[in-house]
Amino acid sequence: MLASFKKFKAWQADFLSRRPHRTLRLTRRRDYVRTLELPGYIAFTYYVSKTVWSYRKLFIGLAAIYLVLYAILVGLGSQETYTTLTDTLQETNSSIAEGDLSQLGQASLLFLTIATVGITSTPTESQQIYAVLLALMLWLTTVWLLRNKLAGHKVKVRDGLYNAGSPIISTFIVGLILVIQFIPILIALIGYGAASSSGLLDGGVETMMFWIAASLLGLLSLFWATSTIFGMVIVTLPGMYPLKALRNAGDLVLGRRVRILLRWLWMLLMAAIFWAVILIPIILLDLCLKGIWPFFVNIPLIPVLLAVLGAVSAIWISSYAYLLYRKVVDERTN
Question: Which terminal residue of the chain has fewer beta carbons within 10 Å of its beta carbon, N or C?
Answer without folding.
Answer: N
